[in-house]
Amino acid sequence: MYSMRTFLFIGIFLSIVTINFPAHSQTKQYPKSFLWGAAFSAHQTEGVTGGGENGDWYQFEHPATENSPIANGDNADLSIDHWNRYEDDLQAAKSTGLNTIRISLSWEKIEPQPGIFNSEVMAHYKTVLKRMRELGLRPMISLHHFTHPIWFNQNGGWLSAQSPEYFARYAQYVAQNLSDVCGLWMTFNDPMGFIHLAYVNGEIPPHKKGLSNGFEAAFNTVRAHRLAVYAFHKARSTNNVGVAYGFKLFDPFDLKNEQDVRAAKELSEISNWAWLRATETGHLEFRYTQPGIIWDKQIIFQRNILTSEMILHAKIDWLGVNFYDHSLVRGTTKPIPFELINTQGLEGDNGSTLAPQALEKITRLVAKHFNYPLIITESGLADSDDSRRPDFIRRNLYALDRLRNGSELGDPIDVRGYYHWSLMDSFEWLNGYKYRFGLFEIQYGNNLKRVPRYSAQVYLEEITKRSPPRY
Ligand code: BGC
What we know:
Layout: H1 4-18, E1 35-39, H2 42-45, H3 56-61, H4 82-95, E2 100-104, H5 107-110, H6 119-134, E3 138-144, H7 150-154, H8 163-178, E4 184-189, H9 191-200, H10 211-235, E5 240-252, H11 258-281, E6 283-290, E7 297-304, H12 307-310, E8 318-331, E9 338-342, E10 346-347, E11 353-354, H13 358-369, E12 374-379, H14 389-405, E13 415-421, E14 440-443, E15 449-452, H15 454-466
Helix pairs in contact: 8-10, 9-10, 10-11, 13-14, 14-15
Beta-D-glucopyranose binds at residues 41, 44, 189-190, 193, 246, 322, 324, 378, 421, 428, 437.
């Protein structure tokens, strides 16, 4: 007897082998303004120079005992030394045909003590941003990419009702100081992914495990996001502000099983839509069903942002799609009633899998839920020998063509940019330097030499097809 799962896998397998990249190609030329980029973040690349010791991840990577929570006991003290070698990295981006780079700022370096800002650090960022612009690389900056100043966590982190104001103070300072050299901003990178790891399961700083902590942190980051959007628009009306949201594609494991269907829907609601919807409506709600023997129980967390705060005009200009995860969901009777099973498709060294149409499907779903121009702010694959990444890039850009031109899955979607994760190999959080996401290999044993992978050439070729050089 073949199980439903076997049929599902055969189906997915068939769709993999029949996918081809048409010779005539749907590739139309892209507008000049289309953003072709690669992304990375401050803590993952810069190294501690400039004050990284003031951050929660520095603390986490240097435990008092020898038991490091990070793979191989790695830390980001030097990482790829982007702080000092930024010129090499910008040149690398240029040689790959990019017209934009996505970075993040280190909050702990900028504001090492509450309300005390480091002007030298800001001067450094300004120099780097100016250089980017000279090279024709439009900067896109994220204010928050997982790390915090130590003082912020000591004051309660995202569980504190004051946390949105702390974040807004930092946002205002940055907006006032850098809006002349950057116009493309995002408040958070993958807020719910961060909250899941740091609050719901407590694996990363500040380790406040618990569902209700997760809800509290989500609520405060929604408020923080709104205040930061407002600060950026106020500092310069031309500031283009968004958020890079980590979307996940959840399909029911068995389409005929009611529990699986419900679990996939509820998980998608909490993970993908609730936080963003709250940024618009002010009402945050997490709701899921806990199946019981006699009756099912509804678990609900909900709260409203105060009307006085909602008065602020905090509408984003665009929405960023980070996408890595496609899973099948099984409903269970456990306290957290979701179980995730990998789908079949291109597999990363870290076990992530992506079915061929996943990027197109999730982006279409996002466009159904929210009416903003979209930018693919991250998609990438851990692939140390670069054996699958070239194909991954081709498939993703084929999906991009289908999104922009329309396909049998739906009408054209307004997607304005694509950022590969990542430009270079870098510090992969709990996994240290174990996984390699870069278009450029970093030779850690060879003075951090940057070596282009074949993927960088493929990305350049794919970009050139869509945006040939113009006069
Ligand atoms: C994060 C990156 C990370 C990447 C690959 C993304 O969700 O934003 O910081 O390096 O996943 O693990």
